[in-house]
Amino acid sequence: xxxxxxxxxxxxxxxxxxxxxxxxxxxxxxxxxxxxxxxxxxxxxxxxxxxxxxxxxxxxxxxxxxxxxxxxxxxxxxxxxxxxxxxxxxxxxxxxxxxxxxxxxxxxxxxxxxxxxxxxxxxxxxxxxxxxxxxxxxxxxxxxxxxxxxxxxx
Length: 154
Fold this sequence. Notes:
Protein name: Fibrinogen C-terminal domain-containing protein
Radius of gyration: 14 Å
Strand content: 25-35%
Largest sheet: 7 strands, antiparallel
Domain Fibrinogen C-terminal: 1-154
Organism: Macrostomum lignano
Shape: globular
Number of domains: 1
Distance between the termini: 9 Å
Structural class: alpha+beta
Pfam families: Fibrinogen_C (PF00147)
CATH superfamily: Gamma Fibrinogen, chain A, domain 1
């Protein structure tokens, strides 16, 4: 909950003990332990496919500094699109980061370590694995600097 807005958590990394080095099927179905989790591409598609949402990315540093990015009209396509991600715009007024870090990933399909769908032969599948279209590069470049990382949609 942020103000009067209620968000659905789609990814959360609190403890960092759970490996996100997962295959396509695991990302499609979801995985986690209650503290660190990914709800699954199918569920994200159900939440956003026909009803664009607000995407909010929150990262908290070990020194308790909160960084926020928000994006309008966030959608994730279905399995026939390889869960292609789109959004309307980066919302500068409700974000405290310096740039739209998702712009490169807009309109691109999801990629995992065992299924490289990004159609860019010069960029191998993520190693270590990252959510190719959900990498907020400015925030996630060094995951060890974040105490809590959450992706959520409203």
